[in-house]
């Protein structure tokens, strides 16, 4: 092995870039040329000590300007993921799986905690969670004290390096394939040129094809912007209290305006686009907007009911819900799409007191089950747990029958 390879073998292979280089191997090349050995926060003091021993240098303190990199792992809040694939493209070790417009998730055993996937996420649905100490002892710098732990850490680094190299090789193959296909298209005559050798007609066909491609790209971008603005609006509605503060209300107004602008931009593009560029069936923007407004008003009313809001606020939200329903009916009447043959059924409101009683019953049942599975549980504990379960069940039965 060369000196660069031996240095690279000691680095943590997170490819995080916190050392100032685009990856671990470029930093290894820099160290081989005399760069400081204390610029790797994920490696910590143990990696610095190993590099100092390899290069016959004095150990240094970790460069404080690089920040800290505790043992962590990426976690995607899947309910908020819009399937944009930006985190998949950013992950250096292919530790995120998913597909376009579908939910993504992280492969826990392969994530190196580099946090490179956090910044590209347009809806901010990725969290970096700390790993439990018992989980990271064998693989994190500063804790590899025994031979088994050092071997486990080396195995983890080698696997991360292989995945990083395999990903780079795959991307290189895809780039070469696209280049070959592009060269082949340039050499092959266009279909219009095969039928008609008129150069002017062939040029017109190429311009039309380019315009169609531009319109398709603009439609895709507008749809992504609409999805992002919708996700941000819904996320803020869930996060803010009820009633929202003045600042929160101002932010909601801005988000609502951004969502409406994105929706209008998409509608304008679909109106001006040729029929072939618009996926069928065509959706009525006004009808879609009315449905979204109805869902938002219904969610606001339910949130206020759960928070035990006063009668005046409930009446205001109820009136807003009724207005949203009327707007939806009007949009359905004016829409060119046929109305579905469905019957609207109003859901019964959830009784908060009954829900609390059922929650207490579930906890009591879980406590008794846990004690029954533990050999060390005493008879007195089991009797008390059964008594609590009977009391909870009796309270639920009494409330339901009342």
Automatic annotation (TrEMBL):
Protein name in UniProt: Electron transport complex subunit RsxB
4Fe-4S domain mapped to chain residues: 1-57
One protein family per Pfam: FeS
Keyword Ligase set for record: no
Alphabetized InterPro entries for the sequence: 4Fe-4S_dom, 4Fe4S_Fe-S-bd, 4Fe4S_Fe_S_CS, Elect_transpt_cplx_RnfB/RsxB, RnfB_subfamily
Keyword tags: 4Fe-4S, Cell inner membrane, Cell membrane, Electron transport, Iron, Iron-sulfur, Membrane, Metal-binding, Repeat, Translocase, Transport
Domain 4Fe-4S ferredoxin-type, first and last residues per copy: 72-101, 102-131
The gene coding this protein: rsxB
Taxonomic lineage of the native organism: Bacteria, Pseudomonadati, Pseudomonadota, Gammaproteobacteria, Pseudomonadales
């Amino acid at each position: 092995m060369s000196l660069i390879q031996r240095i690279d073998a000691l680095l943590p292979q997170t490819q995080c870039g916190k050392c100032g280089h685009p990856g671990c191997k470029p930093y290894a090349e820099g160290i081989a040329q005399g760069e400081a050995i204390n610029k790797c926060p994920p490696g910590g003091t143990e990696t610095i000590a190993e590099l100092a021993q390899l290069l016959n240098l004095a150990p240094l303190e970790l460069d404080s300007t690089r920040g800290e990199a505790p043992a962590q792992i990426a976690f995607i809040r899947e309910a908020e993921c819009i399937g944009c694939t930006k985190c998949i493209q950013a992950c250096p070790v292919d530790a995120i799986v998913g597909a376009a417009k579908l939910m993504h998730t992280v492969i826990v055993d392969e994530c190196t905690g580099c946090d490179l996937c956090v910044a590209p996420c347009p809806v901010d649905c990725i969290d970096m969670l700390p790993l439990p100490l018992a989980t990271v002892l064998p693989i994190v710098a500063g804790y590899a004290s025994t031979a088994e732990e050092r071997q486990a850490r080396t195995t983890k680094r080698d696997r991360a390096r292989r995945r990083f190299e395999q990903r780079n090789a795959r991307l290189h193959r895809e780039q070469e394939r696209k280049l070959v296909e592009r060269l082949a298209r340039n050499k092959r005559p266009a279909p219009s040129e095969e039928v008609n050798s008129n150069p002017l007609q062939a040029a017109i066909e190429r311009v039309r094809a380019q315009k169609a491609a531009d319109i398709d790209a603009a439609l895709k971008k507008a749809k992504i912007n609409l999805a992002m603005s919708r996700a941000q609006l819904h996320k803020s509605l869930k996060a803010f209290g009820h009633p929202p503060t003045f600042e929160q209300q101002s932010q909601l107004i801005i988000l609502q305006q951004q969502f409406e602008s994105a929706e209008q931009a998409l509608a304008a593009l679909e109106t001006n686009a040729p029929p072939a560029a618009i996926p069928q069936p065509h959706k009525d923007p006004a009808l879609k907007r009315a449905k979204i407004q109805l869902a938002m008003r219904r969610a606001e009313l339910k949130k206020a009911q759960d928070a035990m809001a006063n009668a005046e606020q409930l009446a205001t939200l109820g009136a807003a819900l009724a207005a949203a329903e009327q707007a939806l009916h009007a949009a359905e009447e004016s829409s060119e799409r046929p109305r579905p043959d469905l019957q609207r059924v109003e859901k019964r409101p959830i009784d908060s007191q009954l829900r609390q009683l059922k929650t207490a019953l579930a906890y009591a049942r879980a406590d008794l089950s846990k004690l029954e599975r533990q050999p060390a549980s005493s008879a007195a504990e089991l009797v008390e747990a059964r008594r609590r379960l009977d009391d909870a069940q009796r309270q639920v039965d009494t409330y339901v029958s009342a």
